[in-house]
Amino acid sequence: MEQFTEFVGNHLYLSMIFAALLTMLIVGELKRKSGGPGQVGPVEATSMINHQNAVVLDVRKDDEYSQGAIVNAIHIPLEEIDNQLKKIEKYKDKSIIVYCRTGSRSVSACSKLKKQGFDAVFNLGGGVMAWQKDNLPLVKTGQ
Asked: How far apart are CA 108 and CA 80, in angstroms?
């Protein structure tokens, strides 16, 4: 223990950085385990859609959605999600994969759904951009 105390005393700046990084790691892990949305990549999402009949929820704006969406995605823009929960209420017992353009707005939607009692909610990491990067198909919605 004396050596540790001496090391900290001699390397105060390095010790402070280590303590800060350790704190951020612990806080991040606690947040992850506290019921935040799970994150899936495009390949895992495809598997969930094909094998578990996961529901796909697109929370992008209308103009983004009309440029192309994941097949059979339900479209509810993030701003309208609170008002249109009835549209997806029947899927509470299924896995729901939520996506937007990059995966940022969909995190918000996942949190809202979790608060409303949806348990199996997953964010599509990287959003539709990651989906396209993996050469997965989008369909034109014609809106």
From this structure: 12
Whether residue 17 lies inside any domain: the answer is yes
State pLDDT tens for residues 101-110: 999 999 999 9
Tokens of 66: 């009309």
Global model pTM greater than 0.70: yes
Distance between CA 94 and CA 91 in Å, rounded?
5
Q: Is residue 142 part of a domain?
A: no
Strand runs labelled E in the chain: 38-40, 55-58, 74-75, 96-99, 121-124
Q: What is the dihedral of CA 42, 48, 54, 58, to 10 degrees?
A: 0
CA 64 to chain centre: 18
Catalytic residue annotation: 100
Tell how strand 74-75 and strand 121-124 pair up. Answer: unpaired
